[in-house]
Amino acid sequence: MRIDVQGLTVRYGDTVAIDDMSFSLSGNKIYGLLGRNGAGKTSLMSALAGYRKPSGSVQLDGAPVFENAASMRQVCLVRHSADAADKSDKVSHVLEYGAAWRDTWDNDYALELVDLFRIGLKTKVGELSLGQRSALGVVIGLASRSPLTMLDESHLGMDTPTRYAFYDTLLHDFMAHPRTIVISTHLIEELSSLLEEVLIIDAGRLVLQEEADVLRSRGTEVTGNASDVDEFTAGLTVLGEKSLGRTKAAMVYGALDDGQLVRARQLGLELGPIALQDLFVHLTEPVGGKR
Amino acid sequence: MKIFRHLTTALTTFSALVAGGAFAFVVALTFVVSIFRDVEISAWNVVASQIGPWFLLFIGVYAIHNTLPIAIAHGRTRREFLVAASGFSVVLALVMTVAEWLGFLVEGGIYSLMDWSAGEHGTQYAYFQMYLVWVAVGMLCAAAFDRFGAGGIFVLPVAFAFVVITRVQIPGSGDFPFFRNVPSVLGSGWHVLSVAAFLVALAGTWAIARDMPVRQRSA
């Protein structure tokens, strides 16, 4: 499913959550939507899901989404507290809502996931722990089998085994039923291997949209003798450094040219990929802490 | 149609069960009261004319405040939901009027057997219109407060006027501490006003909820 956003602005009173944002997603990928707290991730997803009337244009496969029945049927947004459920509802009722209202709902899969995440069908949503509510959101999102499925910080409160089960399930389901999945998360490294394309937003603006592999290649970790590393990185943008005895590792932002690669080899330095999370920090918080 | 089916099956069934439970409770309560004093009023009329409308108001609020966002989260539009909710309000009012009628029927039999006095109660049409308006006003108030926050308070005078109109032809509506008996100043025009109140409340709900943001959370 193709997504086209043009001149999108979302305001809450005097606060501008999304500021004239434009981008397109070609679809059928797992996208990572990354941003600091208050960057506008939830507001953006809410506009994509038709939760609010957009100022600007939000189109799915060329059709506006807001109050467009055909487009709305294609979308499912799940935030960490399951939107598609009422706190007083039992989990079984929540699944009944999905089965009753979603044409694409896969109830067998929903029951399988509820079992996997150990959520009691007779438990009321309000009685679930934060991690279980997040897991229920994941159940709703994945079982909806919506062509555009958005998971907003769906890992919140999940313990590590549950998060890993979530990642595995997400990947398996995506492989079996390819569609457009947008995930916002703060646990960038845990999810980075799943992400095919990344959007980074900050202060309501799109900072970067890039294939995840291309983005990773924008930075290099340089490891070696401390003095050699210092010599090599002089004049480059260094995102961070770690030292252990005489050995030092520095994260450098920006592609290295052939001359620099040759010099690194001459100095005996090891060059490796940089963590997506470090790049994210750099892109949303310039060195020095000033934005 | 799916939303309408869900609302009618889930909420109408729930409302009918509550009405049944309330009936059983007031019958038992009437027998307890009869031990201490003569029974001179219809206990079911207190439920039907006082508690019933407030319950329907709550159902109207629940439909908009709780169910509308869930419908949107499941890929339904506001328009689809509001069409379904409008039809649902009529069905619910009808079902509750039937429950009210059945209650009076059974209570009448019990009162005859026990030689108790029930006093008068309104027509089925009067109860139906009252229930219709109250559920619509509940939806209107929920839409106003959900959309405008505290600003929703400005809809309350209108809502109050609408619900008062419906009580003109309901005897005993001053028997509970919410409203005093309203003088019958409207003559036969009350039912026209009731229908108008229902339609205006519904139109107001549509106008407010048609492009209302749901599940708002700051950036």
TrEMBL record, chain A:
rRNA processing among keywords: no
Coiled-coil boundaries: none
Organism lineage: Bacteria, Bacillati, Actinomycetota, Actinomycetes, Pseudonocardiales
Organism encoding this protein: Lentzea pudingi
SUPFAM superfamilies to which the protein is assigned, alphabetical: P-loop containing nucleoside triphosphate hydrolases
Alphabetical keyword list: ATP-binding, Nucleotide-binding
Annotated protein name in UniProt: ABC transporter
Keyword ATP-binding (UniProt): yes
Domain ABC transporter: 3-228
Residue ranges of the TM segments: none
TrEMBL record, chain B:
Membrane-crossing residue ranges in chain numbering: 54-74, 81-106, 126-145, 152-170, 190-209
Alphabetically ordered keywords of this record: Membrane, Transmembrane, Transmembrane helix
Protein name: FAR-17a/AIG1-like protein
